[in-house]
Amino acid sequence: MSAGFLHSCMVMKHRLSGCLLVDIRGIEVCQLVLLNVCMLLRLLVCARACVRACTCTVSLIQTFAVHWGLFSVPSFKSEWYWYRLMTGNPEFVEFHNRVYGCSGVQPEKFPCTGEEFTYADFTSMFHAEMFDPDEWATLFKNSGAKYVVLTSKHHEGWCNFPSAQHWNWNSMDVGPNRDLVGELSDSVRAAGLHMGLYHSLREWYNPIFLQDNANSCNTTNFVDEILIPTLKDMTTRYKPEVIWADGASGDNPCSRDSVKYWKAPEFLSWLYNESPVKNSVLVNSRWGTGSGGDYSTGPDRYTPGKKVSSKWESCFTIQAHSWGFDRTEGIENFFNATALIYQLVDTVSCNGNLLLNIGPTADGRVVPAFQERLLEMGKWLAVNGDAIYGTTPWKFQNDTSAKRIWYTQSKMTGDVYAISFDWPESVNGHPGDIVLSQVKNAPPTVSVQLLGMEGALTVKQSVDGLHITVPDVDTIHLPTQHAWVFAIRGLP
């Protein structure tokens, strides 16, 4: 190991020693720890040698992602519209040629007469004329979100902010002629929420990226001239508290490597030690093969159903099949509020964060189907948030006899929360019982309260678990719908 390499590591150690990382909910502060394991590149290395980790549990809990870009203009099937079009997917090519004009894609297979209309021509149709960032921020706040993560750039390369590296391919130069990232960042923070930015590493049809791939990544001109300068400019200008990387995988295996091609260690070294957000920023784990992050991001819609020891994230959509808005889908393809709350509870009880996605329209609206579900979640969280925010997984994640009961535990008080998606039927005109089979040997002093209602409920410990007699009211008169939370106090 060279002297320069060791010196770099010592400089990082000095810089990191006094840093603080604030937990996403503003509840906890944890020291950045320099791990003396320079070989663990998978943990997001700094200067190829020094790694940081957090002594507390990072928890985002409830975050909203916003997929918005040029793909929102056709809003057809997928935010991968351009890729599907250029690779000759018949459904996409035939739709494009019929609705917009001749794409020029495989003309011998898809003959087309009339004027040419390429993907770049969608810039003239992306106006965002109905976009009100304050309205969006209010919606997110009322939905119970703590963080918002906006697409700054998707795989198409279009930037929702002015970018010197993306001349005439950003929302300030063409299309809306507005800094969409800047406007929403200001509104989100004014609403008391945290702001994060999604950023795709690759750009499907950027000629410099394609040339690097053709060179088997022996050149890194795209990373050096486009990606890292853009990331640094974006970070310095908007000061995101989460940078959500994506798109490190690609058709060419060489462009998947976090070190050889994407140079993640170099950028993250700058981010953690020199950037204006060095003491607060969090990153996910999609920086290429061999990378890690402050929390792990598995496959889309990842739901393990059991506790994961390290902090992880479930990326989930409200529309069943697309991240960008898909105007071809009917209401039956939107998950309802109960299903989304179930995904939230399942995720949090297993030590995860839910990143729930919406896709606005090209004119800047969040359609009512999204709004209704977000606001229903917000109403539920307003009553039952103690079982979600500031919690940690309990020793059991769900109930063995009633699979639709999940558990969390308050970090502050130690109270255990049983979250049930079923309400017991009455028996001979008397209220039924919920049986928590995982609660054994509860002391006589244990008490149970239904969140949103006053007073303790009647409980009885039996060999099959803790029996809770529910209130004798119709469910429509309960404080919330969808799921009911029983706070259990006094468990050892």
Task: Please characterize this protein's 3D structure.
The chain has 492 residues and is an alpha/beta fold. The protein has helices at 3-16, 81-86, 90-99, 133-142, 180-190, 207-214, 221-238, 264-273, 337-349, 368-384, and strands at 20-22, 29-35, 45-46, 50-54, 62-66, 147-153, 194-200, 242-246, 282-283, 296-297, 312-317, 352-358, 391-392, 405-410, 416-420, 433-436, 447-450, 459-462, 465-469, 484-489. The strands form four sheets. Strands 9-8-7-6-5-12-11-10 form an eight-stranded parallel β-sheet. It is elongated and about 75 Å long.
The tally of helices reads 10
Q: Which regions contain 5 or more consecutive residues with pLDDT less than 50? A: 1-59
> What is the percentage of strand-forming residues?
15-25%
Coarse morphology: elongated
Overall pLDDT? 87
How many beta strands in the DSSP annotation?
A: 20
Going across the biggest sheet, name each strand in turn.
9-8-7-6-5-12-11-10
- Compute the gyration radius: what is it? 25 Å
Main sheet properties:
8 strands, parallel
* Helix and strand run: HEEEEEHHHEHEHHEHEEEHEHEEEEEEEE
Q: What is the terminal separation in angstroms?
A: 51 Å
Structure class:
alpha/beta
The level of helicity is 10-25%
Write the layout of secondary structure elements.
Layout: H1 3-16, E1 20-22, E2 29-35, E3 45-46, E4 50-54, E5 62-66, H2 81-86, H3 90-99, H4 133-142, E6 147-153, H5 180-190, E7 194-200, H6 207-214, H7 221-238, E8 242-246, H8 264-273, E9 282-283, E10 296-297, E11 312-317, H9 337-349, E12 352-358, H10 368-384, E13 391-392, E14 405-410, E15 416-420, E16 433-436, E17 447-450, E18 459-462, E19 465-469, E20 484-489
Parallel strand pairs: 5-6, 5-12, 6-7, 7-8, 8-9, 10-11, 11-12
Antiparallel strand pairs: 1-2, 2-4, 3-4, 13-14, 14-15, 15-20, 16-19, 17-20, 18-19
